[in-house]
Amino acid sequence: MNDPVSAAWENLRALPQPTLAELFEAPARVEQLSDRIEWQDGGITFDWSKTHLDEAVLSGFEALADACDFAGRRAALLSGERINNTEGRAAEHTAQRGVGRDASVEEAEALHARMRMLVEAIHAGALGEVRHLIHVGIGGSALGPALAVDALARDLALVDVHVVSNIDGCALEAAFKACDPATTMVAVASKTFTTIETMTNAASALKWLGEGGVSDPFGRVVALTASPDKAVEWGVDESRVLPFPETVGGRYSLWSSIGFPVALAVGWDEFSQMLAGAQLVDEHFRDTDGRANLCLRAAFADQYYTRLRGCQTRAVFAYDERFALFPSYLQQLEMESNGKLVKADGTPVDGPTAPITWGGVGTDAQHAVFQLLHQGTNLVPVDFIASIAPGDDLDPAHHAILLTNCFAQGAALMAGGNMSADGKDPARAFPGDRPSATILCDDLDAATLGALIAFHEHRTFANAVLMEINPFDQFGVELGKKMAKDIEAGDAQFDASTTALLQAAGLG
């Protein structure tokens, strides 16, 4: 094929592949590949200098972005066009942060005002004493709130929030044990208000409230949904139904009423700061072109390692306990968005799509998985995330050691070497030339959290454009769910192995 996209890929494949050591011989490399997004009280530094991006690679990917009409796809996303072509929907999560189609931004502001009134009424005691919230959801409606609450509410929780997503009853029982029914509310987060895991957990939570002496369990429920009529039909009073638009997908929904548990835990001002941080990245993404667009530049590196170097995974390590859930959040964002078989036009994808996203927390991960990163035969690009300001009040030595380890790991992955006395022992040899990027925050506050999440949302979208896929559907999650329903209905015919397993478990 000789179309512009294929030609751009062929040009990229033909480029030389210098080592990181060779690339660092060029002057001002760090300055060219390290940039900041700043605001009045902080900012984030994005350092991609320890990746194999160079002038030729960046120019080649800029040509690919042009061939894929990145600017047009970005404009379509931000103007509310039906960019999710398989489902005939727009993807308007940025409108929740103030960037998008005017009518959608106005709707988001009105829905936020409604949510704020309920949050502040609860804080003021209008619904009685509320000390706990059990937030029931799954996928993005649980992962986003869990991440934000864990990151922001460790020291200043106004309400103790427990996020439950697993249908395994052990998860819900753990929340019950930590809460008093008399002072607990339940948030039910479901776009359709039909998700079986969520609705089953919600029904059990209502039963627990009733058995705990709450005379009107439904009076303790808040519904977060794009189907408000179904929530009212289920039994939630309309005054406690917080809608969000159909055009906001689950893994992009933290900014909508799905963020209710975050606002309840840390207060509306903190939630508003999270929105503001995300908006700053939205504006950078909207207004900046080519390699200067940090989200697009990150996608260039992602595509370089996945398509040109054959990397099947990408690792993310947060050197901050407050960000422990971020790798799990990214797994859904990236793998559910970009793990696709076909392009947006329905034709087969002609290369690998999303790598497997995985990771953990430093320094724990150093003593678990870094052996493979340094000496294994798999090439794994790594993202390090850290905060200059500590999240604790202990001896500053704690945070100094944490950051030192973070920076040293990136340097060691790149440099390699041999730790034996004579420098010849192969068991102590480190090949080096292993890529990493570092995202260094001034502090991990609400604005920073919002900016980091928005950065990765746009990075994911930019990757999708370069691969010509639709990142906003997720039909891959449906087949297993359908088969599970068939089992419940007794309508399923399965292979011999599955049939035997069902019988062994007493389900067949």
Structure description:
By secondary structure, the chain is α/β, with parallel strands linked by helices. It folds into three domains: 230 residues, Glucose-6-phosphate isomerase like protein, domain 1 (Rossmann fold), CATH 3.40.50.10490; 179 residues, Rossmann fold; 34 residues, no CATH class. The protein contains 19 helices and 13 strands. The radius of gyration is 24 Å and the shape is globular. The relative contact order is 0.14. The mean pLDDT is 96.
Rg from Cα: 24 Å
Structural class: alpha/beta
How helical, in percent, are the residues?
A: 40-55%
Distance between the termini: 51 Å
Q: How many structural domains?
A: 3
Helix segment count? 19
Query: What do the pLDDT scores average to?
Result: 96
Question: Brief description of this entry?
Answer:
With 508 residues, the chain is an alpha/beta fold. The protein has 19 helices and 13 strands. The protein folds into three domains: 4-16 and 36-79 and 288-417 and 431-473, 3-Layer(aba) Sandwich (Rossmann fold); 94-272, Glucose-6-phosphate isomerase like protein, domain 1 (Rossmann fold), CATH 3.40.50.10490; 475-508, no CATH class.
Task: List the main descriptive attributes of the protein structure presented here.
globular; Rossmann fold; 508 residues; 3 domains; 19 helices; six-stranded mixed beta sheet; alpha/beta; five-stranded parallel beta sheet; single chain
